[in-house]
UniProtKB/TrEMBL annotation:
Signal peptide: none annotated. Residues 5-224 form the AB hydrolase-1 domain. Gene3D superfamilies: alpha/beta hydrolase. This is AB hydrolase-1 domain-containing protein. It comes from Pseudonocardia adelaidensis. SUPFAM superfamilies: alpha/beta-Hydrolases.
Amino acid sequence: MAELLFLHPVGLDRQSVAFLGLLPVRAVTFPGHGERRRARPGLTLADMADEIAGHHTGRFDVVGASLGGMVAMHLALAHPGLVRSLVLACTTPRGDAQVMEARAEATEARGAAGMLDDTMTRWFTPEALERDPDAPPLAYARERLLAMDPGALADTWRAIARHDVLDRLGEIGVPVTCIAGRRDRSTPLPVMQDLAARLPGARLVEMDAPHMAFLERPREFAAAVREHLAWVRGTTEGAHS
């Protein structure tokens, strides 16, 4: 019986999974996020995946949002025995090195507060920010971003800059659901369509949502995860019948 494992976006922590109401579920906090200290220089997304593998046993249906989806790909490639299936939401198999380095430098120069508006407008729709800026998911994201060490955040942007598993996607043989936000400015729909097309046996689910689809539309996102799990069970049972 596989367990559900949630991997969070950059700047947030494992508490973000609470907005989905998915139980039971495990979640981790990446180095430099939440209450965790800044990691050693040069930490990579592959290192983050290795850390997860070093602390968990069994098999998981892994749900990864944004950064979490990138780490989930590394986990499936380096530790395939740990992964039964993947949900990859609003993520990419290759980081844009130029954009990520510029973002890291801006974070170091401007600090968390100076980057907050840019990040929130990239993550959420204008309607959500205007309608209820103090809604719990938005308030949580804002609080976590302001609390994070700018150096640790810059480290993470640089780790994403070095992320590239594009040419290895064909090695991922587990069932995959890609969740795309049609209003996602960070990973536009064509990026997610291409990701799904490159993954053997993947399916694509579109949502009328921004980059933080799981925070702005948690019920719809959770329903997509449950549909994925039902699909995986059917696929697994069919393979053994």
